[in-house]
Structures are given as structure tokens and as C-alpha cells.
Amino acid sequence: MPKVVHTVAELHKILLPLWRKGESVGFVPTMGALHEGHVSLMRLSRTGGNAMTVVSVFVNPLQFAPGEDYDEYPRDLQGDVKVCRDAGVDVVFAPSVAEMYPRGFVTWADQDKLTEKLCGGNRPGHFRGVLTVVLKLFNIVRPTIAYFGQKDYQQSVIIQRMVTDLNLDLKVQVCPIVREPDGLAMSSRNVYLGPKHRTEALVLHQALERARELVAGGEKSVKKLHGEVKRIIGTAKSAKIDYVAIVHPETLEDVNDVSGRTVIAVAVRFGKTRLIDNVIVE
């Protein structure tokens, strides 16, 4: 069973001997509601030569805008600890909001440009909250390697940029998207989907796979790819597109054509549930 701790002081008691010896610490930051996508990151940490694997479970209020699903976000610490146990995790860090943001907290991490694109355009302040909590967690855990999923592609880019810009002494490893058998990208928010929306949400993977096929067949036109992705998503009656973006993998700038490694990313609402997905094409 993993050791479950709720304070920074408790966590540091466990980690201090490893830091002193210079041993490798693997870290998987999460908001809980753990699924197989999270487990894949834990396994990579377990098999990656780390002396210890730490998983954080913290629903971060700073990254939710007013009217978003902070209060409804699924929380099941007991279930999450069992998932971590089965994955061989050593420590679960589950702090309270007061532990992470003590009274009088006024310091934020932020970024220009990268945070304004894609999801940043529809979720103002979201990435400021993400960067702030991730920087705090990096300072608390002091990992050797931190593991993130490709599904949150923009998040992985801005976190890697922060690590580079601030000379943080760790490696960020971005790991492949884990999907349900029918192709839907695993997400904690999938639990919000009723049967109808769950079926309709399959258009995301279908649209991205079609774009991948077109690129593999030699298609380079952003206009044609964009149109085909929107057409397929549009076959789901309840789908409301936030964005379809075809961008450079590092700058997240729109590209004129697919001439090198490119990311095709989508954000779509099915009822009240907003889902994101992406594919990297060459």
C-alpha cells in the first residue's frame, strides 16, 4: 500500500533521504479520478529506474474559471489510492487547498504567447493556474523525472517551456495518449458523458485518424485537413466545436501547410462536457 501523506512536511520526511543520496524520484501529478492513462504514467515511472514514485492527487482550484466544473470534478481519494497501490506507487501526496495555498497567497507563475493559444483562448487564466500549481509541486517533490500525458498537449508544451526558461533541474517526459477500446481518449471528465454523448464523442478520434490518413497519403493543405476534421465532428448532432487547430508542435503557432512534424488538436463540447484530443502527424 502506498504511503498517503497530506502535508509538505510529511512528504519531505520521506523524500529527504533520497535527495541526500541523489537517488531518482519519479513524479506523476494528477487531479485524481485516476484511470488507465494515469496508470500508464505510473508504470513508466516504476520501470524507469526511479528509486521512488510519487503521485500527487490535488484538484487545483486555480485552474478552474468561474462557472467551470471545480465543485463537480470527480473526487475519490480512496479509489485513487487503490489504483496507485495496484500500479506499485510508493507515495500519494494528497494536500488540502489550504496546504497548497496558505492564507495570503499572492504569487503566480505565468507565461506569454503559449498560454494564449488553443485552450487558453476559451479558458482565460487556466494555464496560469496550471503553471502555478505545477511549479509548486516541482518545488515540493523535487523530482528527477515528471510524467505527463500527450492528451493535454498544450499543457505539456507550456510546462516544458517553464522547465527550460526557469532552469528547473528535472526532466519532463511526455507519454502517448491512452485510449478506450473504441478510440476515445481516456479522461477523468468522460464520466460526465451520458450514453448518447459518449457515442457521439467518438467523432474526435475518427476525425483525427482521418486527418492522419490524409497526411500519410500526401495531403499538406491545412484548409482541406481543417475542413475534413470539422466535417466529421459535425456528424455528431450535439458537438459544439471550441477549436480545430493545426499548429507547430513547439510554438503552437498555426502552420500554413503540413510540411514537417505538426499537431492537429481539437476541443469540442458534448452537452456540458468539454473534451480535448490531438494527433501528431509528420
Account of the 3D structure:
- It is a single chain.
- The protein has 282 residues and is an alpha/beta fold.
- The chain folds into 2 domains: 3-175, Rossmann fold (3-Layer(aba) Sandwich), CATH 3.40.50.620; 188-275, Pantoate-beta-alanine ligase, C-terminal domain (Pantoate--beta-alanine Ligase, Chain: A,domain 2).
- It is 38% helix and 20% strand.
- The protein starts with a strand and ends with a strand.
- Helix 7 (153-165) links the parallel strand 5 and strand 6.
Could you provide a short overview of the structure?
This protein has 282 residues and is of the alpha/beta class. It has helices at 8-21, 36-47, 77-87, 97-100, 119-122, 126-141, 153-165, 195-200, 203-216, 222-233, and strands at 3-5, 25-30, 52-57, 91-93, 145-149, 171-175, 239-247, 262-270, 273-281.
- Cross-sheet strand order for the largest sheet: 1-4-3-2-5-6
**Annotated CATH topology of the largest domain:** Rossmann fold
Strand content: 15-25%
Number of H- or I-type helical stretches: 10
- DSSP E strands, number: 9
Structural class: alpha/beta
Largest sheet: 6 strands, parallel
Distance between the termini: 43 Å
Global morphology? globular
Domain module count = 2
Q: Considering the protein shown, what is the CATH homologous superfamily of the largest domain?
A: HUPs
CATH architecture of the largest domain: 3-Layer(aba) Sandwich
